[in-house]
Amino acid sequence: MRLLFCCTDTNPEPWLAGIRQALPQATVELWESGAAPADLAVVWAPPQVFFDEQPGLRAVFNIGAGVDALLARRIAPSTLIVRLDDAGMAVQMAEYVCHAVIRHFREFDVYEAETKAGRWAFRKPRRREEFVVGVLGLGVLGTRVAQALRGFEFPVQGWSRGPKLIDGITTLDGAEGLHAMLAQCRVLVNLLPLTDDTRDILNRDTLSRLPPGAYLINVARGAHLVDEDLLALLDSGRLAGATLDVFRKEPLPDEHAFWRHPRITLTPHTSARTMRDESIAQIATKITALHRGEPIVGVVNRLRGY
Amino acid sequence: MRLLFCCTDTNPEPWLAGIRQALPQATVELWESGAAPADLAVVWAPPQVFFDEQPGLRAVFNIGAGVDALLARRIAPSTLIVRLDDAGMAVQMAEYVCHAVIRHFREFDVYEAETKAGRWAFRKPRRREEFVVGVLGLGVLGTRVAQALRGFEFPVQGWSRGPKLIDGITTLDGAEGLHAMLAQCRVLVNLLPLTDDTRDILNRDTLSRLPPGAYLINVARGAHLVDEDLLALLDSGRLAGATLDVFRKEPLPDEHAFWRHPRITLTPHTSARTMRDESIAQIATKITALHRGEPIVGVVNRLRGY
Predict the structure, then answer these.
(1) Dihedral sign computed on CA atoms, order A221, A227, A233, A236
(2) SS3 B18
(3) What residue of A is the nearest CA neighbor of B268?
(4) How far apart are CA B219 and CA B224, in angstroms?
(5) Residue B47 in this model has a pLDDT that exceeds 90
(6) CA A129 distance to own-chain centroid
(7) Residue A246 and residue A238: Cα distance in Å, rounded?
(8) With contacts defined as CB-CB under 8 Å, which chain A residues touch B123?
(9) From A24, B50, B119, B251, which residue has the greatest number of CB atoms within 10 Å?
(10) In B8-49, where do the E strands start and end?
(11) For the stretch A53-86, what's the b/e string if a residue is b when 16 or more beta carbons lie within 10 angstroms of its beta carbon?
(12) Structure ipTM
């Protein structure tokens, strides 16, 4: 078994050492152009030449949950594309989103500004039972986020392309379900995969369906959001604010209006980082299962896009 | 049945209306000096003259979880003292503490300062499996907080006076248990009742037992913390920071050093507000149970102090 590692923006040494340890029977090498044909690969944003030179790959493992960048490549139809499920990302995502939702709901940002100015002042508490939080996307990450929010007794609604059932969460699907959910949400959390169907889904039309004063949290992909539509709705006072972790171009360009907007909190795509040890363990387990002819989860449906 | 309402710093009208609706069989009145003898009372920080004039009270219901202020009064031995359990406070406390722990663990405060300065910069993630969070006090609020933190996969330890068992939490008790727990905690959360045994418990000795760089969250009472000991440990760099919601004197006096300390986040005693509707429902249920001769929870042990 021969495995290539081809990950942009990643220090390869600890990954190679970890994969060699987890799969001692495999030959594990850092990819270079002209490398001998391999069966398997671990990748992040690989160049097109990688796939052009390796048409015989049986499976590629993406070290992230989103495969939108990978699906922009031409990949042999016989190559299985596998994404990470969870691998330590779901708890980070739950943490990131709960922190942002609680901060907004409890107005801890306002309290921080008040106390920094030396003022001891109460704010009237918001009513939790009316504070609907909506989650777009109910995959491994979206489900974990919805359940974590439910733990704080918010009414939680979740939307996905097809119908899903999640204990304690009101689930909706399809275009009608999306509109019904948007009309309820005081906070909207985006955790959709980026596909042709979901690109630009957070736009003037959809965001205007939220109740006045609603809040947006985008932790999926920058291309889900039409930046200028969000800015217009924030500046008109229609939306209260946004927490954004992902952007159309990363790093976010210096001149972008998001940097200086008083009602946008931004982080540098850090909501859920790939955890090396968990990822290697998951990939090794899946490779072993594939070799035994057993089914694995996380195989990407190329037509669906995730 | 005659019930008096005697709550300082509280608008009585909605409480009186709510109690009358919940207990239609009772005569419910706002206390004034000279009021006729009553069986029951709903109180918050009542003056001594209230108890001096009402020695025949069967039970007083405190509209808060902490009864330290109430126990400073002389109260007839035959009067049952009852505190609120939960009544909407536990979820607020879980929210407050999880927000503060996540903000510190994920360094969202640092990210906020960086992005406000226009910098896109990653920080090396902290290791969750080493990030022990310790909770002092395992009553209704402490238990809920410990479980909420466990939901984010932190190793959680909990300490209480006597032994307790909580699923998923390492529990310790007694003086030896306290020292063992302090030595582990990257974050220490205080949710103890204020009693003669716990006053000043957060002092130079105990706080110095925490690992270097530990973080303190005090959401119980200001008198648990020796203010100058915390300031010294922060200024020497021994502790990383603190989130404080309670203070020896409230509102926190203008001249207090906590107001301007760069590594203290403070809020004006807002971690868990009394929720009127939930509190009235709970008190009404307990009164009905007492009338039927059934046992109720939340009866204060005066010797123990909570």
Answers:
(1) positive
(2) helix
(3) A120
(4) 10
(5) yes
(6) 27
(7) 22
(8) 270
(9) B50
(10) 27-30, 40-44
(11) bbeebbbbbbbbbbbbbbbebebeeebbbbbbbb
(12) 0.94
Asked if the Cβ–Cβ distance from A102 to B99 is below 8 Å, we say yes
Choose, from A99, A256, A269, A276, the residue flagged as catalytic. A269
The tens-digit pLDDT sequence of chain A (306 residues) is 999 999 988 999 999 999 999 999 999 999 999 999 999 999 999 999 999 999 999 999 999 889 999 999 999 999 999 999 888 999 999 999 999 999 999 999 999 999 999 999 999 999 999 999 999 999 999 999 999 999 999 999 999 999 999 999 999 999 999 999 999 999 999 999 999 999 999 999 999 999 999 999 999 999 999 999 999 999 999 999 999 999 999 999 999 999 999 999 999 999 999 999 999 999 999 999 999 999 999 999 999 999
Residue A83 vs residues A192, B224, B258: alpha-carbon distances, Å? 14, 49, 48
This prediction's pTM = 0.94
Residue pair A229/A258 in contact (Cβ under 8 Å)? The answer is no
Burial class (CB in 10 A: 0-12, 13-18, 19+), B12: middle
Chain B interface residues (partner A, CB cutoff 8 A): 91, 94-96, 98-99, 102-103, 105-106, 108, 111-112, 115, 118, 120-123, 125, 128, 148, 151-153, 250-252, 254, 259-260, 265-268, 270, 273
**B61 DSSP 8-state letter:** E
> Looking at CA atoms only, how far is residue A127 from chain B in angstroms?
10
DSSP 8-state assignment for residue B299: B
Helix/strand number for chain B, H first, E second: 10, 12
The residue count for chain A:
306
b (16+ CB within 10 A) / e for B140-167: bbbbbbbbbbbbbbbbbbbbbbeebebe
A221 tagged catalytic: yes
Q: Which of B182, B191, B194 lies closest to B94, judged by CA?
A: B191
- How far is Cα B134 from Cα B151, in angstroms, rounded to an integer? 14
Structural tokens at position B289: 């149970």
- Closest chain A residue to B91, measured at CA: A152
Distance CA B83, CA B261 (A): 34
Q: Which helix (H) or strand (E) holds B7?
A: strand B2-7
Taking alpha carbons only, the member of B248, B188, B249 closest to residue B224 is: B248
Please determine, for residue B9, whether its predicted confidence score (pLDDT) is greater than 90.
Answer: no
Name the H helices within chain A.
Answer: 12-22, 48-53, 68-71, 89-105, 108-116, 140-150, 174-182, 204-208, 227-235, 276-291
Q: How far apart are CA A214 and CA B183, in angstroms?
A: 43
Tell me the three-class secondary structure of A234-286, residue by residue.
Answer: HHCCCEEEEEECCCCCCCCCCCCHHHHCCCEEECCCCCCCCCHHHHHHHHHHH
Structure tokens at A280: 């290697």
Residues of chain A with C-beta less than 8 angstroms from the C-beta of B128 = 91
